[in-house]
Amino acid sequence: MFLAAALAAICALIYGADIWFFAALLFAGLARPEGAALAVFFILAAGLVKRVYFPDEFNRFIKNFVLIYFIPALVYFFWRWNYYGQFLPNTFYAKSGTGFQLNAAVDIFRFLRFYLALPALAGLFLWSQEADWLKEKIKRDYLNWKFLALAAAGLLFCAAVFLALSQSHLIANFSTRFYVPFLAPLWVGLILIWKLGFLAVERFEAEQPTRYKFIIFLFLALVLYQ
Predict the structure, then answer these.
(1) Distance between CA atoms of 22 and 12, rounded to whole angstroms?
(2) CB within 10 Å: which end of the chain, N or C, has fewer?
(3) How far lies 27's CA from each of 39, 80, 137, 193, 199, in Å?
């Protein structure tokens, strides 16, 4: 449920659907404590992008933020504090505060390797085919505040989740379910890598069809094997 809400929020942000963006963030915050961190980083990034690139829409963005996200979240967390005496679930406090746990950090890396290693390698394989062309395209289309703010929001969210979980003592054999929040921004980043890679290899599809088919076959084999 959290993963669906987080993906919906990121996709709504990419497509500029502010109302759905705030609604999905609110739902993500109700589903998991990590939703609050997700909201902080992505709302700040979205606000920066609106202020710099779409100043005419900034006031409407703030109004939607207050009405759709801030006021409902304030009501909910005030009720939670009034009822439970704390903002986050008790299980969050029970697992945290134990200091840095090397086993937890290793477990996180093992989780990311298990789900993302070969798809990421497949993306890098696509990139290696037309590296010079991709370098120029990235410089032209992606080295701007709009993209960098959103990328920074995803990376900072992952870093915050890693710091929190690396100080948690998870002894249950289903502890990997707590690592699901990593997947939403990492999947979106992986899709972007794939998109750029496919744009690169399509440049020689007509001239070198055998090479193109081999690359696509190897890409699919890596992803399916994962």
Answers:
(1) 9
(2) N
(3) 10, 15, 36, 28, 35
